[in-house]
Task: inverse folding
């Protein structure tokens, strides 16, 4: 007999520890999405791509904190390798400071590429 580790959501009893972890990660992502930490111009930023996607953007080292548009590079949330060249991003596209729960919303984590002609100017 094999053990069943997946639940359909209608089962009774306690959640499996793996399910509890997934629920905690998803809840943290929703909370961070609804109440983003303000971005001060320093550190990584969560940049809106499309309607729902967020990507990790790192401003250039010589970037002024109050510049608009912001010159940044989109980077992979885990490996920190550059996904794009330098982009000029309007401050209105910055969702907030980058936090780890945003990983779930990135193109890179989903295995999708970012378009080479991406426009973040508006």
Result:
């Amino acid at each position: 007999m094999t053990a069943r580790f997946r639940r359909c959501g209608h089962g009774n009893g306690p959640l499996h520890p793996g399910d509890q972890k997934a629920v905690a990660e998803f809840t943290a992502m929703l909370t961070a999405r609804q109440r983003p930490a303000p971005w001060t111009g320093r550190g990584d930023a969560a940049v809106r791509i499309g309607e729902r996607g967020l990507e990790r953007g790192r401003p250039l080292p010589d970037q002024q904190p109050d510049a608009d548009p912001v010159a940044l590079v989109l980077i992979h949330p885990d490996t920190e390798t550059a996904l794009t060249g330098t982009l000029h991003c309007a401050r209105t596209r910055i969702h907030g400071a980058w936090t780890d729960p945003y990983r779930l919303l990135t193109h890179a984590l989903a295995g999708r590429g970012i378009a080479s002609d991406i426009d973040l100017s508006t």
Q: What stands out?
A: The chain is about 20% helix and 20% strand.
